[in-house]
Automatic annotation (TrEMBL):
Pfam assignment, any one: PTS_EIIA_2
Alphabetized PANTHER family for the sequence: PTS SYSTEM FRUCTOSE-LIKE EIIA COMPONENT-RELATED (PTHR47738), PTS SYSTEM GALACTITOL-SPECIFIC EIIA COMPONENT (PTHR47738:SF4)
SUPFAM superfamilies noted in UniProt: Phoshotransferase/anion transport protein
The protein's name in its UniProt record: PTS galactitol transporter subunit IIA
One MF term in the entry's GO annotations: protein kinase activator activity
Domain PTS EIIA type-2: 1-146
InterPro entries in the record: PTrfase/Anion_transptr (IPR016152), PTS_EIIA_type-2_dom (IPR002178), PTS_SugarTrans_NitroReg (IPR051541)
Length: 166
């Protein structure tokens, strides 16, 4: 798997998924991770293909859009102060999402690999519990170690973590 920048924020308040997605779009644009079309593309994709996923004890959202909007690969992990309502991916209902993981990829094949890896790890309720309970300063490292410590290509040893100030 190719290297990804990892951005992490905790304790943000969002009234709904749209507000969370607008934040992601503007934050990633300000960081130079995406091009100017990304914020609108992220909102449009979420409207057409919701990303809320119900897991054993919690729900997560994994918003993403086309690789043509990315300047460099990144993940933006957000642990909001309170769960955020997102539409469920596979039905009409809404979910209270406790963790948002925005994927920004430059290679569509990498998106599939990354989604599979994420889904595999998030199926472990202990991992998700650990992410939700981790101190702010440890959240990104815990996520990075677990996600990228699995046997993968040599590129996985070159992961970067860039904290985003709260």
């Amino acid at each position: 798997m190719q290297p990804f920048d990892l951005f992490v924020k905790s304790g943000l308040h969002f009234a709904d998924a749209t507000q969370a997605l607008e934040h992601i779009g503007q934050e990633m644009l300000a960081r130079g991770v995406v091009n100017a079309g990304y914020p609108a593309a992220l909102l449009a994709r979420e409207a057409q293909f919701p990303t809320g996923i119900a897991l054993d004890k919690h729900a997560v959202a994994i918003p993403h859009c086309g690789a043509e909007h990315a300047c460099r690969p990144a993940l933006y992990l957000i642990r909001p102060a309170q769960p955020v309502p997102f539409q469920q991916a596979d039905d009409e209902g809404s979910l209270a999402v406790s963790l948002i993981i925005a994927l920004i990829v430059t290679d569509p094949q990498q998106q599939l690999v990354l989604l599979r890896t994420l889904f595999g790890q998030l199926q472990d309720p202990d991992f998700l519990d650990a992410l939700l309970a981790a101190p702010d300063e440890a959240l990104g490292e815990l996520f990075r170690q677990r996600l990228f410590s699995q046997p993968a290509s040599p590129a996985s040893s070159h992961q970067q973590q860039q904290g985003v100030p709260s």
